[in-house]
Amino acid sequence: MKRALCILCCLFINTNATPNHPVVVTTWSFINSTIGAWKVLKNGGSALNAIEIGASICESEQCDGTVGYGGSPGENGETTLDALLMDGKTMNVGAVGAIRRIKNAISVARHVLENTKHSILVGELATEFAVQMGFKEESLNTQDSKQLWMKWHNENHCQPNFWVDVTPDPRKSCGPYQPKYRSKTSLSKIKGDRYNHDTIGMVAIDSNGDIAAGTSTNGAKYKIPGRIGDSPIPGSGAYADNDVGGATATGDGDVMLRFLPSFLAVEEMRRGASPTAAAQIAVKRIAKYYPEYMGAVVALSKDGEYGAACHGLAGMPFPFVVHDKTMEKCHVVLVECT
């Protein structure tokens, strides 16, 4: 009964003939980002602008240390950023992956969307593109991120990490590593929780009924340099389609991107599923193959109905934030995980 009640609490059913527009939903308890996005929507702004503004607030505030500069240093101690912005009206996408020394990743993604015929730019050349577009180049490391990395590197001897089938044994060394085949070594697992979940994901519908979705993240802590997770991958980190709705995902990106959960949730809504049911289907698809993964999906239909599902948060509920025209202030909704 408890689980049933929790599922019901995360489901908005639009019983009115008028669609629930405008509306914005945001992963985790990122209230300030939701407020910022809602202000754009309330004043008649576009869903694209709302997502960019909302995500950029999280980048500036370094939400939970998993978004923006100064968090989640890689194995080499450097913080890099991923971001995605998708326009559900045109089906156009702009994204950046592993971008270095640029704080405004979501805004760079907006420039990729609007100023190029490409969809994704990555790494050092994404940085060069950003500078060309007028962005300031500056370090993404902070004293906190340096101390976090030093403790992991020196005190914990680089454990846990993301290497498998390599020598020397990564449980005892910080590398360098070389391939070791036919290994059956069982390595420590990276813990996933609200402080290593990687992403702010947002979906918004504006007053015109146009839908946009986006993400921003500094990736997984101690990732191998060059790693890109699910966040900047269209259909994985986020997806939007004016004809159906939008969705966004957060969690264990290396696993989740293999299943395109945001795309799957939108397609399930296209087939008639409610947002909650669609999110549950996407989450269960991943859990079938990776029962220990951690993640969540939030879905929003074109009529403004929203829902979410999650898995593997160690007994903790998954929060997401909603603001629509029926609310005086945004609401944090808790979802019980499987």
Automatic annotation (TrEMBL):
SUPFAM superfamilies: N-terminal nucleophile aminohydrolases (Ntn hydrolases). It is an enzyme of class 3 (hydrolase). The keyword Hydrolase applies. GO terms for molecular function: N4-(beta-N-acetylglucosaminyl)-L-asparaginase activity; peptidase activity. The record marks 198-199 as: Cleavage. It comes from the Eukaryota. Keywords: Autocatalytic cleavage, Hydrolase, Protease, Signal. InterPro entries: Ntn_hydrolases_N, Peptidase_T2. It catalyses: N(4)-(beta-N-acetyl-D-glucosaminyl)-L-asparagine + H2O = N-acetyl-beta-D-glucosaminylamine + L-aspartate + H(+). Residues 1-17 form the signal peptide. Gene3D superfamilies: (Glycosyl)asparaginase. GO terms for cellular component: lysosome. GO terms for biological process: proteolysis. Substrate binds at residues 227-230, 250-253. The keyword Nuclease does not apply. The active site is at residue 199. Its EC number is 3.5.1.26. Belongs to the Ntn-hydrolase family. Cleaves the GlcNAc-Asn bond which joins oligosaccharides to the peptide of asparagine-linked glycoproteins. This is N(4)-(beta-N-acetylglucosaminyl)-L-asparaginase. It comes from Leptosia nina.
